[in-house]
Amino acid sequence: MTVIAHISDIHLAPLPPIRVRQLLNKRITGYLNWKHKRKDQMSPGSLNTLVNHLLYQRQDMTVVTGDLVNLSLNEEVEVAARWLRKLGQPERVCMVPGNHDAYVPGALRRARDIYGPYASGETLDANPYPFVRRAGDAAIVGCSSAIATPPFIAAGLFDQQQADRLGKCLQVLGDAGYFRIVAIHHPPAKENTRPWRKTLIGAKRFRQTIATYGAEMVLHGHTHISSVHTIAGPGGRVPVIGVAAAANLPGSPAAPARYNLFHIDRLSHGWSCTMREFGYQRVGDDIVQRLQLRVH
Prior knowledge:
With 296 residues, the protein is α/β, with parallel strands linked by helices. The chain has one domain: Purple Acid Phosphatase, chain A, domain 2 (4-Layer Sandwich), CATH 3.60.21.10. It is built from 6 helices and 14 strands. The chain has a 6-stranded mixed β-sheet with strand order 3-2-1-12-13-14. A 6-stranded mixed β-sheet has the order 4-5-7-9-11-10, covered by helices on one side. The longest helix is centred in the middle third of the chain and has 16 residues. It is globular, with a radius of gyration of 18 Å. The mean pLDDT is 93.
């Protein structure tokens, strides 16, 4: 059995001290959003409790689908690097970036340098995405949809070059008999095409790649809610699973903080994969198993 954990949208808080010159770009809108909305919806204490619960699980790999930070400040990235080390050793933790990790031009490159092996893996060439991380019978294929965007835009991009590389990775891993998990921050399902300013540009291209080469599961974040959709694969429907933001407070109007745990077994005729969702309820401060779902 291979066990994979999935957590997303960490949005580490509180914000560090900010100088005025650091806000003379898109960060000013994110800062105001944080001050007037997000700081009251997200809790470092609740996040720590959720992570401590996750650390008791016997997972082979933890997949983090982006948005570790809020404004991509250098001080935030340093804190996020320490948070990743708490989550586990690099060989058992991998992360793909979200839009907040690439909030301004150059931020994602700096963050990748600091996160190092947590944000990298085997690649086909010099391009950092997609990268592959293997854990037991599973292979996680980490894609990037993170790009710097103008104010009020939180869209992502999946271009043709990355699609071509993803297709090659999926083909090789499928031929090798792995349970292929594609991780990306922005959701690719048709149900997530609105609002346009938060959507994945190239989502159709992503779906076409999966339809051609196949995958056993897609994991994403970004929406801050838990969800299960499907997209077409060459042999049937492929589960597309999102998880609520890990920083959300218990009782959050969107969805209280949660993480998912997948138990993957190889069968004589295919795969068995069961998902268990753990997190807060809308009332109370206890972390409980909220549901169990057979996804394969």
